[in-house]
Design goal:
Strand content: under 5%
Shape: elongated
Structural class: mainly alpha
Oligomer: single chain
Number of domains: 2
Largest sheet: none
């Protein structure tokens, strides 16, 4: 009996065969969009792959529709062959560095560099096709929102009132907790990323 991953790979392989008339960049874009749509649907409805593929549509119809739309495009998709998606590890590395960098020294500029890296990482994750929307929210909540809330609580409860004894005793434990939350979010995003599988190749997660 075929597994769900096998059914998806065979479906995408059929779409690729039926869409050979498309330019290579347009064909890869079509496969990437279908792969993302299918992964999102599978995350929302586990175990319902056959129904999902049926709802996505007949591969030949999809290929013909894409070819028809491309033929009526007013501008040729010249930028597409050079467009490359950022690897999944890059925004995650930026998140880790942004969490550690402010504590690497007393220079004020490190805080601004860290903030810029964090914002860049968040934007990259939000635009990435490596995760579903729910996975993005979960990972970013762990990696950025919870540490930020921890910093706000620390400032309002300890720093602003001037509790120096508490600051001295609990500053580094609070820092470690914030970094651990970031690492937990980054680790979760890394484990739940979606890898684009080429037709005919085995899923590396199996």
């Amino acid at each position: 009996m075929k597994t769900d991953d096998t059914l998806v790979r065979e479906y995408l392989a059929t779409v690729e065969r039926e869409s050979t008339a498309l330019p290579p960049a347009a064909r890869q874009e079509l496969l990437a969009d279908l792969g993302e749509h299918i992964e999102v649907a599978r995350a929302e409805r586990p175990g319902d792959v056959r129904t999902i593929l049926h709802e996505v549509g007949d591969p030949r119809t999809i290929a013909n529709t894409a070819l028809h739309e491309l033929g009526h495009t007013t501008e040729p998709p010249t930028p597409e062959p050079n467009r490359r998606r950022s690897p999944a590890w890059l925004p995650l590395l930026l998140l880790v560095i942004s969490a550690v960098l402010p504590y690497a020294g007393e220079h004020v500029g490190l805080d601004w560099i860290s903030l810029g890296m964090e914002i860049t990482a968040i934007v990259m994750v939000c635009r990435s096709r490596c995760w579903t929307a729910a996975r993005k929210w979960t990972g970013l909540a762990l990696a950025t929102i919870l540490p930020a809330m921890l910093n706000v609580i620390w400032y309002l409860a300890v720093v602003a009132p001037g509790n120096n004894s508490v600051i001295d005793a609990w500053r580094w434990p609070a820092v470690v907790v914030g970094i651990l939350l970031t690492l937990a979010g980054v680790g979760w995003l890394w484990r739940t990323r979606v890898r684009q599988v080429l037709p005919g190749k085995n899923d590396p997660r199996q």
